[in-house]
From TrEMBL:
Residue ranges of every copy of the Aminoacyl-transfer RNA synthetases class-II family profile domain listed in the record: 111-320
Regions annotated as coiled coil: 61-92
Keywords assigned: Aminoacyl-tRNA synthetase, ATP-binding, Coiled coil, Cytoplasm, Ligase, Magnesium, Metal-binding, Nucleotide-binding, Protein biosynthesis
Cofactor(s) required for function per UniProt: Mg(2+)
Classification via InterPro entries: aa-tRNA-synth_II (IPR006195), aa-tRNA-synth_II/BPL/LPL (IPR045864), Phe-tRNA-synth_IIc_asu (IPR004529), Phe-tRNA_ligase_II_N (IPR004188), Phe_tRNA_ligase_alpha1_bac (IPR022911), Phenylalanyl-tRNA_Synthase (IPR002319), tRNA-bd_arm (IPR010978)
Residues annotated for Mg(2+) binding in this entry: E256
The protein's name: Phenylalanine--tRNA ligase alpha subunit
EC number in record: 6.1.1.20
Localization per record: Cytoplasm
Class of the enzyme per the UniProt entry, highest EC level: ligase
Manner of cofactor binding, per the entry note: Binds 2 magnesium ions per tetramer.
Amino acid sequence: MKETLEALLKEALEKIQAAEDGRALQEVRVSYLGKKGPITEVLRGMGKLSAEERPVVGQLANEVRDEIKAKLDKKEQELEEIRISKQLAEQKLDVTMPGRPVPQGSRHPLQAVVEELEDIFIGLGFSVEEGPEVETDYYNFEALNLPKDHPARDMQDSFYFTEELLLRTQTSPVQARTMEAHQGVGPVKIICPGRVFRRDNDDATHSHQFMQVEGLYIDHNVRMSDLRGILDTFVKRFFGEDREIRLRPSFFPFTEPSVEVDVSCGICGGKGCRVCKQSGWIEVLGAGMVHPKVLEMSGFDPNEYSGFAFGMGVERLAMLKYAIDDIRHFYTNDTRFLSQFKRV
């Protein structure tokens, strides 16, 4: 048995040495170390040996197997080094050739607009607050003076999970949650950026998903003139110092009085053109003084505190600022469109 194992070792080493590629080496590995190989057969036949021979033959068989395996691994490494050297010799690189340009990404235009808005309002003393996108009916509607039977809910057709759980239709719930957290003690001065969702047809100016930035300021003796001053400063910093605003009466359930805010057209300078529909003005956002019932539901005494709120669509601001004609461009991931904003 000892002579047999020594002969197997010699034979295997010769075949390993003669192997010229990985395939031949694998055949040697299977032939000698496989389940049907001669070494395995020797180990299976140890039952026929005497008690004195078994440990000697077993030890020798393991030593032979280990040595064959070590030689196989070493030979495999040598063949791999030869293959790599040959490949490098055949595929020489010209290091003097110019490299391939690596495409550089950029901030998404919507993210750039949000960051610009945050910078403006932080500079005006506001802080940034965020909230959940999956919201309860109470914070999305009821806490904002929109009870379940209020007809104004029809303006915000919603994605409901249950009767009390939905994708938020506005970032106003963040305002309600923040007011509630202050437990009736001001001041509260925040903006709330984020995604909102409404069941809407997707076309050039509408999307079922879009972004909003809303603002809220509550303190003693806050007046409509404070709102106008903040919005006028925002418009001049965002659109340019030459732009003006005007306020038009409107209606929102959570503000009273409520206004629509227009900005003078940057194309015609307020003279009238196709972009502003010959009016000289373009609507950009809605605003108003916080309704006393909203203050009261959030724990504030409306006889002691007052405040204003405003809300604007990020996509609309971006479309106006960068002359983008279709809201769907923001969501198609077309690099031809996005690459235009590398300097934004």
